[in-house]
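Lecture notes, unit on protein representations.

Consider one protein chain, 157 amino acids long.
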Amino acid sequence: MSFCKVTLYGNLGRDPECKTNNNGTQISEFSVAYEDGYKEKAQVNWISVNAFGKTADFCNRYLQKGAAVVIFGKLRVDNYVNKEGQKCIFPRIHADEVHVTTKRENGNNAANRPSEPRPAQGNVQPPGFGRPAPKPPPSNAMPPEFEPPDSNTDVPF
């Protein structure tokens, strides 16, 4: 058995397009831009994303152009022959989970839409995410094996 899991972090290039297939399943289609490279050599790449069912409903309701997202999904590759008779390859991501990471500040953002718990499917978050931070030890606490030196002892330096 083999599979290809993908994690994509980028920004939506357009508002999601909502569709419904013959079975009545909701579909959301959108594109995500991500940078490949570093500083002056960075190149912007685009990839198409499809989401289905509850994830599609979430995308259609809460995502819009410019939103920063993290997408967990599977890589799919469609092959077709164009008008010139050339074989073309079209990669896309089938999203299992979509997470919004930031909101736009110009008033045209997801915050203006009704809120809903995220992620859209499941309740999986990265390890440690959403858990309370461990409490730091009190500032006057000393490790149990530590004993302060006798104040009458000479220090060797």
